[in-house]
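hi!! sorry for the late reply, been swamped w classes. u asked for the two structures so here they r. pasted raw, havent cleaned anything up. first the sequence of the first protein and right below it the C-alpha cells
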Amino acid sequence: MTFEETVKNIWPADREAMENAQKRWNSIAKPLHSLGKMETLVIRIAGITGSADIDIRKKALVAMCADNGVVEEGVTQTGQEVTAIVAENFLSGDTSACVMCRQCGTDVYPVDVGMAVDTKVSTEFKVMYGTHNMTKGPAMSREDAVKAIEAGMEMARRLKEEGYGILATGEMGIGNTTTSSAVAAVLLDRPVEEMTGRGAGLSSEGLQRKINAIKTAVRINAPDPSDPVDVLAKVGGLDIAGLAGVFLGGAAYRIPVVMDGFISCAAALAAQRICPQASDYMIASHVSKEPAAELILKALGKEAVIHGDMCLGEGSGAVALFPFLDMGIAVYESMSTFEDIKVDQYEELV
C-alpha cells in the first residue's frame, strides 16, 4: 500500500480485547494490579493485536541506517564513515544492541534507507546517498521523505507476514541527534536549546555549533509544524522518516512497536502527528538522557518502564524492555487463577 492508503488503514486499538486481558489479570491469584506496568503493557498489546491471547515469542529489531548532510557543520564527534561501519556490524552481530538481542532471542534487521555509501546491508530501500546539509536548504524532497516512510511501512508489513509478534525500533546515523532535535523542536514548538543535547559526547563548543546549525536550518527552511512530512523533509533525516514508517506500519498491520530513545521517539512523534491513532500501537521502553526525551514521551502520552540513564541508541533501550514483557506474559499465561486454587477473588475497592 502507498503511504496514504496505509494511514487510512489505521484504527484505534481494540477495546474489547483490552477488557478481556484486564479480566484475565484480575482473575490471577495475586493482589490486583500488583505487577503494575507489566500488566498495563500486556493489556496494551492485546488491544494492538485484537486478541487477549498474547504471543510475542518472535521478536525483531528494525535498525534504520542513514547519513545526514548536516555533519558538515561540525555537529558530531565522529566522522560519517562510522555509520557504514556500525551498519555492517549489525549484520555480523557486533553491536551492543546485537549482543542484547542475542540475550533475549531477538532477530536484527538493519535497513539502508540512506547511507552515504553502499555496504553489505541491502540497498533495496535506499532512497538517496545521505541527506543534504539542512543548514543550506531542505534535507530532502518531500517525495524522498515519503519514500523513506514507505520503506518503514513495508518492513513492518513483511515482518508481520513472517510471524513476528513485536518490533523494536533502532537506528544508526551519525548526526541524527541533530536532526531529531530539529524535528522535535518544530513539532513541539519548543526552543532549540531546550531540545538539544550533547549526543555522542560533544564538547560545550560542539553543542553550541549544533544548536546554531539547528536554528539556521529551521530559519531558512521554515518547516510547517502542522505538516509532519514537511518537517521530516526539511530538517529531518531518512532514518527518522523510516522509523516513522515502522510506527505507522505497525499500527496499520496491528503489531506492537517499541520506541527506543530520543531519535526513535522523535520518529514516533512525527508518526503520531501524521496519524494520531498510531499512538495506540506504540510502546515506550526507556527515558533517554537526551534533554528532549521526557518532553516527547509526555507529548505522546507515554510512560517509560526503564529509567537507566541510557543514550546508546541502536535500539538498545527498546530491546531491554523485552525480558520485562516476557516475564509479564509468563505470569499472564501460566499463573493459577483464584478459581483454580479455590480462593475468593480480590475486588476493586473504592
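now the second protein. again sequence first, C-alpha cells right under
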Amino acid sequence: MINVFIDGKEGTTGLQIYERLGKRDDVNIIALPEELRKDTDARRECLNKADVSFLCLPDAAAIEAVSLVTGGKTKIIDASTAHRTNPQWVYGLPEISSKRREQIKNADRVANPGCYATGFISLVAPLVKEGLADSGYPFTVHAVSGYSGAGKKAIAQYESRDREFSLSSPREYALTLSHKHIPEMVRECGLANKPIFSPYICDFYCGMCVTVPLFTRLLTKKYTVDDVRKFFTDYYAESNFIKVEEEIPQFLPANMCAGTNELKIFVGGTDEQIVLVSVFDNLGKGASGAAVQNMNIMFGLDERQSLI
C-alpha cells in the first residue's frame, strides 16, 4: 500500500490527481481536514507520514512544504515551478530518454514538468540531443491552452454567466516574452538561447496544442518532412503515451486528447518549412497525468496504471 498525501488537493491539479488515484486499491490517500489544510503542523505530520507527497501549490508554498519533510521516507513530486531547474531534483519527463526514466525510478525528488514545457520539450529536445538542430537554433513556439490551465480564478471567470465579452476570443499573453516555463524549456533542451514563446488561453476547458516551426535550411543538414517524421517515430517507438501520427489533418483540435495522458505528435509542412505540433491534455500529460505516471515509475509499477 502506498500512502499518498496531496498538499493542495483543492486546486485543479490536486483534484485530478485525487480522482486518478482514488479508485486504486494499492493507494491510501491521507486526508487532511478542510479546517487544517493551511495548518503548518498538520501539514508537516501528513507530509512525513506519506510514502509520496504531491505538491500542488504556489512556488513559495511548495518550497515551504519541502522544508517540512524531516525524514528520508517521503518522496516528493512537485507540480509547481519551484524546482524544475534545480539540479538536485529530477525533471519528470520519462520519455525524453531511458536514462531519465531510470533517474525518476531512483529519485526521491521529482519536479513535474510544466504543461507548455512538456509540449515544447517533447518536440525540441530530441532534435538537439540527436544533432538535427544546433543548440543555437532560433526556436519559436506558439501554443493554445484551455482555460483550466490558468487556475481556479480563471475557470470561474470563463464559466461565469456574466463574463466579459473578450473571454469568447483567444487571448494571447506573455507579450513581454517572459513566461515561467521558459527556463525549463531552455535547460531541458540544452538551448543556447531562449525561444520566442507566444501562448494563448482560449475558450475551452482543457487541451493544449504546441507548435514549433522549422526552417530546414537552418538545420544541421537537409531533412525532408518524411525524414523528420520517421525520426520522431523511431525516437518515441517505445513510449506508452507519446505517439507520432502518420498524417497531419486539415484541422487539428487542441482538445483531441482531453481526459487522457496521451501526447500526439504531428509533422507537416514542406521540405523547406516544417511544422511540429504536440497535442495533449494540459491537465493530463501536462499536469496530473504526468504526476501519477512519475509516481508509478518511482514505485516500480506499470507507468500506465490509472492512466489512459
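hope this helps!! also noticed smth abt the second:
The CA atoms of residues 174 and 185 lie 15 Å apart.
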